[in-house]
Known about the structure:
Dihydrodipicolinate Reductase, domain 2
Amino acid sequence: MKVAVVGATGLVGTRMLEVLAERNFPVTELYPVASSKSVGRKVVFKGKEWTVVSADDAIAARPDLALFSAGAGASKELAPRFAEVGCRVVDNSSCWRMDPTKKLVVPEINGDAITADDYIIANPNCSTIQMLMPVAPLHKAFTVKRIVVSTYQSVTGTGYKALDQMEAERAGKKWGEYPAVYPYPIDENILPHIDSFLESGYTKEEMKMVNETHKILDENILVSPTTVRVPVKGGHSESVNLEFEKDFTLEEVRSIISGTPGCVLQDDPEHNVYPMPLFAWGKDDVFVGRIRRDPSVKYGLNLWCVADNLRKGAATNAVQIAQYLISKGFLPSL
């Protein structure tokens, strides 16, 4: 299979290459695509060096699959061009997520929504993926009425420049002495600000969680989000409060989560066992714990979930979509 990775030199793009290799994805020809300043650079995939090429050169090669992580602008311009030559596109940007003609997919939840006619498939926002992994099976069992979620998102969600900013601050540099992508220092600080603010007072990141939950899971679920940036290198954490229509037991909840592919139950507070980004980093699963009833509502539940935002929140989910395309016969296999 001929595979293009658009944005191959970025944080998510490099993870896409890692996950493709780890899962032994059937790549016969690789086309790493990046901006013009990176064309000619080398990337390593499965022990072999591959040369970074332009998008035009990759399209001319007529790849079977293109994994995109180059931003919404690049996706809007380039994804249709790849699709026009018969290439299946899995896009990690926000460009196509709410397009009614495009599928928004978490394979474990709604992979069966993909059809042979889908040539551009959207990868959801990292925070939405992570939240819905445990919420979707609980919704199936008890019907979620309302979600109140607060996120604690690492700086890798912004990219290399955010990492550079935090490292500069930790090295003792003063504000103004280094390039900054955030409006304030992030080290030893917390920013209740991810993406731009809307007239409603919510941010675009927060509304992504609302709108994507409706599109992927159920438009009747009420969602109240607050998204926050924290000085953590990698791994997003979320405090999730659920209100159900039906009653439940904590034993049922734990059983459902532990039996859900892609979820790992870490819920033994007596022995200090609970999810943390320190141990989720580099892994593909969503880790769930701190499971307890909410005593303020009739059928309420609190849980805490953590995942590597660059893997299940981005690269791994995209590769899983590609694997699903192979399983349905929509992509060639070796």
